[in-house]
Specification:
The chain is α/β, with parallel strands linked by helices and 296 residues long. The chain is 44% helix and 18% strand. The chain has 2 domains: 207 residues, Spore Coat Polysaccharide Biosynthesis Protein SpsA, Chain A (Alpha-Beta Complex); 76 residues, no CATH class. The protein has 12 helices and 9 strands.
């Protein structure tokens, strides 16, 4: 049984997947397996995967005959994982060589922890942009360690390609297969409801920005996922939510219904309802008027 299982979903990232695979192979902690599930890529990804699998017995690959979506693809990879600990790596991201070793030290001291780390943002050619992942998401000052369930309800800022957790902790926690883009956010919330997070400030992973990032390709699908997710949060966790958490969920739902970017929505709120009581009243009126109150 390997110590770590790394699950890598693959779809049409032939330009990047070789680097992603090599970054796992180069880990200073060698006791691992790499499970690659290709979701019917139409580019050169399958050839690259098979070539590298022949060079490393730690790699196991699976290939879909038809595209079924990233949520189900990752779930399938998790189902065959055998490691004590498990993490995911997007096929367009990469890891620094000591990532798993550093995370193992924390996981051994904190068996129930979800361990994640800072990332460096790179462009399509692998050049550093000078920005960190948390800077990209404007999350530098947000809590990153501890029980952050309530904080995450305000919006996701966890770097999914950096996260590792004990595999036994995932019992009953899976990605919803009806979420095309925000399944990782749902997964983080479900984990945060049960377990503490531990953050490593050193950037041990690379997050790649390129024209093929899925959120840029289908904003309508992203908005639809956002509506589904907010309803899921309210339906699943309503008894556990403080009024402040419900407020943030409703506020986000209203912004998504209006299809406004966060900065524009904040500007409108500051203009028409700059204070707390007045703002909550405005949000209640908006919520009742938008889609019959079904926006969030």
């Amino acid at each position: 049984m390997p110590l770590f299982s790394v699950v890598m979903p693959s779809y049409n990232h032939a330009r990047f997947i070789g680097e992603a695979i090599e970054s796992v192979r180069a880990q200073s902690l060698p006791d691992l397996e790499l499970i690659i599930v290709d979701d019917a890529s139409t580019d050169d990804s399958p050839r690259i995967i098979r070539a590298l699998e022949r060079r490393d017995r730690r790699i196991r690959s699976f290939f879909h005959g038809a595209n079924i979506g990233i949520s189900r693809t990752i779930n399938e990879g998790m189902d065959v994982a055998a490691g004590t600990f498990v993490g995911t790596l997007a096929s367009d991201d990469a890891w620094r060589p000591t990532k798993l070793e550093r995370q193992l030290a924390i996981l051994e001291e904190n068996p129930e922890a979800v361990v994640w780390c800072e990332g460096e943002v790179v462009d399509a050619d692998g050049r550093l942009t000078g920005m960190s992942f948390t800077q990209l998401l404007r999350a530098e000052t947000r809590p990153k360690s501890g029980y952050i369930f309530e904080e995450l309800l305000r919006g996701n800022y966890i770097f999914g390609s950096s996260r590792c957790v004990r595999r036994s902790s995932l019992a009953g926690i899976r990605r919803r297969e009806d979420l095309k883009y925000l399944n990782d956010y749902q997964f983080h919330i479900d984990l945060a409801r049960r377990f503490p997070y531990r953050f490593i400030e050193e950037p041990l992973a690379l997050y790649r920005l390129h024209g093929g990032n899925t959120v840029f390709a289908d904003l309508q699908g992203y908005y639809e996922d956002s509506r589904k997710l907010r309803r899921y949060f309210l339906a699943t966790y309503a008894p556990d939510l403080t009024w402040r958490s419900r407020y943030h969920i409703w506020r986000y739902g209203i912004r998504i219904a209006l299809k406004l970017p966060a900065s524009r929505f904040r500007a409108l709120l500051n203009r028409f309802a700059p204070h707390g009581t007045r703002r909550r009243a405005l949000l209640r009126r908006l919520r009742r008027s938008l889609v019959g109150g079904r926006c969030c």
